[in-house]
Specification:
EC 3.5.4.16; 247 residues; globular; GTP-CH-I_N; two-stranded antiparallel ribbon; GTP Cyclohydrolase I, Chain A, domain 1; binds guanosine-5'-triphosphate; 5-stranded mixed sheet; GTP_CycHdrlase_I_dom; GTP cyclohydrolase I; GTP Cyclohydrolase I, domain 2; one-carbon metabolism; alpha+beta
């Protein structure tokens, strides 16, 4: 039988059966499935399709055990320090169920409505609050974003709240801002199928404020323009002019 703690690094190689997989830690089991399916599992990827029932609880327990080791390595006496006794458990819960849940949960259900009225005017939603984390230091990224949509008669209209729900699902992963907005744009394009889509995001990166260069005042602003927003400078101007002026 294969060493249960070692998942193969590539799909060719040993094929494990369910009994072998059951012996592995959940994280190795899930990684084995991902590698077998040749799926990327970077920090900003959603891997929910490879996680089976009950496995998130197992992952949480694994993270808790490793986090306890991190605290030990930091020479923190978690046994007598009443403030840190439950910290490993809290951090594991925070990672898996809260701040990185966008990796482990499927996309929220999105009801789509046909564009009966053939709406074809610019629609803007925002500011949508962004809560994310940088994949370099896992420090928070807090900010806001605006989404502009130019639908056509074949577009799917989605409920306004769904823009915020999809944004939250994508942002709740460790990542970099440039990739986050592209991922959000791709996801919305696929659902809504508009003539044009634009996103502007402005966020504070705590890895720049709390540590490192310790610059509290600089935020990062970036945008992604697709379809009509790329081709039509007037539309782009209209969208940008309707965003609240930055302070
Ligand atoms: N481009 C980009 N950079 C980011 C983002 N979030 C954090 N960073 C930066 O990622 C960089 C990490 O680079 P490193 O030079 O390896 O890290 P470091 O030595 O700790 O750097 P300092 O932060 O300058 O102390 C830092 O400059 C961060 O400010 C992001 O969303 N986009």
């Amino acid at each position: 039988m294969a060493d249960p703690t070692q998942a193969p690094s590539r799909p060719s190689g040993l094929i494990l059966d369910e009994a072998d997989l059951a012996q592995m830690p959940a994280s190795e089991r899930i990684r084995y499935r991902l590698v077998g399916a040749d799926k990327r599992y970077h920090a900003n990827d959603n891997i929910s399709a490879f996680v089976r029932e009950g496995e998130l609880a197992e992952i949480k327990a694994e993270v808790q055990a490793k986090m306890a080791e991190v605290l030990k390595a930091l020479v923190i006496d978690t046994e007598s320090d009443h403030n840190t006794q439950e910290t490993a458990k809290r951090v594991a819960k925070m990672f898996v169920e809260e701040v990185f849940r966008g990796r482990y949960q499927p996309m929220p259900d999105v009801t789509e409505f046909p564009n009966i009225s053939r709406l074809n005017e610019l629609m803007i939603v925002g500011p949508i609050t962004v809560r994310s984390a940088c994949s370099h230091h896992m420090c928070p990224i807090i900010g806001k974003l605006w989404i502009g949509v130019l639908p056509n008669e074949h577009s799917n209209l989605i409920g306004l709240s769904k823009y915020a729900r999809i944004a939250d699902w994508i942002m709740s992963r460790p990542q970099i801002q440039e990739e986050a907005v592209i991922m959000l744009a791709d996801t919305l394009l696929e659902r809504v199928k508009p003539d044009g889509l634009a996103i502007v995001m402005e966020a504070d990166h705590f890895c720049m404020a709390w540590r490192g260069v310790k610059d509290n005042d600089s935020a990062m602003t970036n945008s992604v323009m697709r379809g009509a927003f790329l081709k039509d400078a007037n539309l782009r101007r209209e969208f940008l002019s309707l965003l609240p002026k930055k302070s």
